[in-house]
Amino acid sequence: MAIVKILGTAGARYVVAKQLRSSAGTYVEHEGTRLMLDPGPGTLVRMASAKPRLEVEKLHGILLSHAHLDHSNDVNILIDALTEGGFKRRGVLLAPKECLEGDTAVVLRYLRPFLKEIRVLQPETSYQIGKIRLRTSGRHYHTAETYGFIMELGGQKVGFVVDTLFFPGLIDYYRECQILILNVVRYKPHPSPNVQHLCVKDVEEILEAIRPQKAILTHFGMTMIRARPHQVAEKLSRKLGLEVLAAYDGLTLEI
Ligand SMILES: [Zn+2]
What we know:
CATH topology: Metallo-beta-lactamase, Chain A
Mean pLDDT: 97
Strand content: 25-35%
Order of helices and strands: EHEEHEHHEEEEEEHEHEHHEE
Low-confidence stretches: none
Bound molecules: zinc ion
């Protein structure tokens, strides 16, 4: 059995800044391999307060989908804690090039040699961390270099459709997934082309095309919080005849 624990469900600046929902990352465990995906602000705190407590030093890997702070803020403290300040060289970091180079680099240089390995993510490429096999999607349409993930967990393909503007190619990237976890920041489309996030209508289109066994909505901006995510999920569920759930902070899926 695998576990996916969504520690935080906040997306977009306001919900994160006010901590209306937690902005912690998503914990994944499968056959003894433990990963943290997108450790936003509060990940370390939420790991310590989770029941049962999640031990940072037992993580095997950290994954960043992109460099935005609500996805990467705690990456440095996690590396420091995981490696006991560099005394134990361990852990793998998978991240897009933008997280590691140039003005957008979010991983502190002095921490990098503490890790056993850093792998730069490429589009549509397979990776193995311990017992977890995963594949990146093609590049998402987002204001940073962004890749989603398809992980093989408990015999199922679980797609993490992270921040992106909708485009038809998304459906192809995640088509084989039995479970989809989607970052739905917006209730309605944003008028500005610079806000590159999924809205509910986009999610409906994706779910209608893929028809997964289960879909989980997360990473909510203010318009989604106001619309009440569980009501949005219920409506989608009825309309599509699929199981659609809204995540809450700490939601644990057993797969
Ligand atoms: Zn983003």
